[in-house]
Design brief:
This protein has helices at about 30-40, 50-75, 80-95, 105-110, 115-120, 125-140, 145, 150-160, 165-175, 180-200, 205-210, 215-220, 230-245, 245-255, 255-265, 275-290, 295-305, 305-315, 320-335, 335-345, 350-355, 370-390, 395-400, 405-435, 445-470, 475-485, 490-505, 510-530; strands at about 20-25, 30. The protein is mainly α. A two-stranded antiparallel sheet has the order 1-2.
Length: about 525
C-alpha cells in the first residue's frame, strides 16, 4: 500500500516557499511570483515578526488553549460544544508556524514558557490537534530555518528535549494510521523532526533510543513486505540512529534487529528495486546492516542467522545489491574468524575471487568508474580479512590455492592493483610535497590522511595480502611475485616500505594490546621480505 506523502524525502527540507513553478492540472506552468503577489495582497496586514509579534502570537495561542481545555472539561460528552474551540486552537497553531521565519526569536519563545504548552498538545484527545503540533515542530526545526542560527537552534532543541519531546512524539506515533493521508503525513513529519533534532544535537540519537520505543517502531516498519515511503524513511532514520552509536548498534542487536534487517534485505536477493526511492531503501537497509555488524556480538548473530549464506546468494544472483552484499561481508569478516570460516565452508571463495578478477555484473549504475573502484577496494579488504581470519588448516590451504590456480592469475591481478594504487599514492605524495614547497602548512597526520584517501589504505591491504602469500613459503608464488616486481623495476623493499608505514601508523582504537598484536603481525611480513 503506497502511503500518501506530501514531501519527497530526497527533498525533505525544500520549503514550500521556494521560487519554483508548479504544474497545473491542465499541464500548464504557473509562475509562483503571481501566487506570491496574490498572497502578499491578502496578508498586507500581517505585522513584522519581532518580539512584540511573538508575544501577541503566544498570548493568543495560550488563550485558545485555555478555552479549549475549559470547554472539554465543562462538556466532556458533548463534542459539538467544544468543536469551535478546537477549530480556533488549530488556527492558532497554524499561526505559530510564522515563527519559523524568525529563528532568532526562539530563545524568547522558550523564555515565554510556551514549549510545555505546545508539547502537551501531542497528547490531545483530538488527533488532528496533535498532527498540527507535529507539523509545527517540523517547521520550527527545519534545517533550512536553523541554518546560520546555531545558538537559537540549540536553545530551542534543549528546551524541547527537557520537556519530553522525544517521548511525546514517539507515543503519538502509535495512534497514527498510514491509511489516513493526514496521519501518514504526520508520521513522516515526526521522523523528519527527530532527524532535525539529531542534526542540531547528535546526542539525541542515543537519547531517543534510551527513552522511547522508536527502535521497535522502526523495525516494525521495515518488516513490512510492500514498499512505501514510510518504510523508506524509517530505514533512513534507522541508519542515522545506528551510524555513530555503538550503544544503539548493540541495543538493536538485542532486539533481534540483525535478523529483521536480513529478512528485509532478503526481499532483494533475486530482484532489483523498481524505482529510485526503492533503491534508496535497499541502500539504507545495507547501511543499517553494516552499522549493526560493528559490535562483535552482532557479527555472531549475523553468522547464526545465515547472513553469510544470504550475502553469497545475493552476489551469485548478480542483482543491484551485489556490491552492498560484498560490503556487508567485509564488515562481518573484519576481525571475526568465525565469519571467515563460514564463508570458506559455504563455497564463498569462488564468488569472491570472481569479483576480485573484475567479473562483476554490468549495469547502468556500475559502469561508473567510482562504483567499480569502490567495489574493487571492498573486495581487496574482504580478501585481506579472510587472510587475517584464517591462519591455518585446510581452509587456509584452500585460500592460498586460489593464488596458484590458472597459472597464478590472481597474483597477476594483485600485482596489477598494487602498481595502480602505488602510482596513485606516488602522484598524491608529489602533489603534497609541492604544496609544502608553496608554504602550505600541513602536519604529518593530515598528510597521512590525504594519502590514505588517495588509495594508500588499499595499497597497504594489498601489501598485507602479498605478505601472507610470501610467508606461505610457496616457491611458485614467491617466484611470480618477484618476477612481476622486477618487470616494474621494483623490489621486495618497495613492498616492505609500504608495510613499514602501515606498521608505524596502526592506531590504538581497539586498545594497546590489539595494537601490539597487529604490529607484530605486520612486522612478521616486513622481516620475511627482508630475508
Amino acid at each position: 500500500m503506497e502511503v500518501v506523502n506530501p514531501q519527497n524525502h530526497a527533498a525533505k527540507r525544500r520549503r514550500t516557499g521556494d521560487s519554483d513553478v508548479y504544474a497545473a492540472d491542465n499541464g500548464s506552468d504557473i509562475d509562483l511570483s503571481l501566487l506570491e503577489a496574490v498572497e502578499k495582497s491578502q496578508s498586507a496586514a500581517i505585522e513584522v515578526l519581532d518580539l512584540k509579534t511573538l508575544k501577541k502570537l503566544v498570548l493568543s495561542f495560550e488563550r485558545r488553549l485555555r478555552d479549549n481545555i475549559e470547554a472539554r472539561l465543562k462538556y466532556p460528552d458533548q463534542p459539538e460544544k467544544f468543536a469551535g474551540s478546537e477549530i480556533e486552537l488549530h488556527e492558532e497553531l497554524q499561526k505559530l508556524k510564522l515563527l519559523a521565519g524568525g529563528p532568532e526569536l526562539y530563545p524568547d519563545l522558550v523564555n515565554l514558557n510556551t514549549i510545555p504548552s505546545i508539547l502537551g498538545l501531542l497528547s490531545h484527545d483530538n488527533t488532528d490537534i496533535a498532527i498540527d503540533v507535529v507539523g509545527l515542530l517540523q517547521d520550527l526545526t527545519d534545517e533550512d530555518v536553523l541554518e546560520d542560527n546555531d545558538e537559537p537552534a540549540r536553545v530551542l532543541v534543549d528546551s524541547l528535549i527537557e520537556n519530553n519531546v522525544l517521548e511525546l512524539l514517539v507515543q503519538n506515533l502509535s495512534r497514527l494510521s498510514e491509511s489516513d493521508p493526514d496521519e501518514s503525513a504526520a508520521i513522516y513529519n515526526t521522523l523528519a523532526t527527530i532527524e532535525n533534532l539529531i542534526e542540531v544535537k547528535p546526542a539525541v540519537a542515543e537519547m531517543v533510543c534510551e527513552r522511547t520505543k522508536l527502535l521497535r517502531w522502526l523495525l516494525s516498519k521495515i518488516k513490512v513486505r510492500e514498499f512505501d515511503s514510510i518504510k523508506q524513511y524509517a530505514s533512513e532514520i534507522l541508519a542515522i540512529l545506528l551510524q555513530n552509536s555503538t550503544a544503539n548498534q548493540k541495543r538493536l542487536g538485542q532486539m533481534n534487529g540483525v535478523d529483521v534487517v536480513l529478512q528485509a534485505v532478503a526481499m532483494y536477493k533475486s530482484r532489483d528495486p523498481k524505482t529510485s526511492d526503492e533503491e534508496e531503501l535497499v541502500e539504507n537497509l545495507f547501511d543499517c546492516l553494516c552499522c549493526l555488524l560493528m559490535p562483535l556480538e552482532n557479527k555472531e548473530r549475523f553468522v547464526k542467522a545465515e547472513g553469510v549464506e544470504l550475502m553469497i546468494i545475493i552476489m551469485k544472483q548478480k542483482k543491484s545489491a551485489y556490491s552492498s552484499a560484498i560490503r556487508a561481508l567485509d564488515f562481518a569478516m573484519t576481525k571475526y574468524p568465525p565469519a571467515c570460516e563460514r564463508f570458506v565452508d559455504v563455497m564463498g571463495l569462488k564468488t569472491a575471487f570472481a569479483a576480485f578478477m573484475g567479473k562483476i555484473p554490468i549495469s547502468k549504475k556500475n559502469k561508473k568508474e567510482r562504483y567499480q573502484e569502490d567495489l574493487e577496494e571492498r573486495v581487496i579488504s574482504l580478501i585481506a580479512s579472510l587472510f587475517g581470519g584464517i591462519l591455518r588448516g585446510s581452509r587456509r590451504d584452500r585460500l592460498l590455492s586460489k593464488f596458484v590456480e590458472n597459472e597464478c592469475e590472481k597474483i597477476d591481478r594483485l600485482m596489477e592493483l598494487y602498481i595502480r594504487y602505488s602510482d596513485r599514492v606516488k602522484t598524491e605524495t608529489e602533489r603534497l610535497n609541492q604544496l609544502e614547497l608553496d608554504d602550505l602548512e600541513m602536519d604529518e597526520d593530515e598528510r597521512y590522511n590525504r594519502k590514505l584517501e588517495s588509495g594508500l589504505y588499499t595499497l597497504q591491504l594489498i601489501a598485507v595480502v602479498l605478505g601472507h602469500l610470501w610467508c606461505s613459503e610457496h616457491s611458485r608464488m614467491r617466484a611470480r611475485i618477484e618476477l612481476l616486481l622486477k618487470q616494474q623495476k621494483l623490489s621486495k623493499n618497495d613492498v616492505k616500505d609500504i608495510l613499514q608505514e602501515y606498521h608505524d601508523n596502526i592506531g590504538d582504537l581497539d586498545g594497546p594490546e590489539e595494537k601490539e598484536r597487529a604490529q607484530t603481525r605486520i612486522q612478521k611480513f616486513i622481516s620475511a621480505f627482508e630475508a
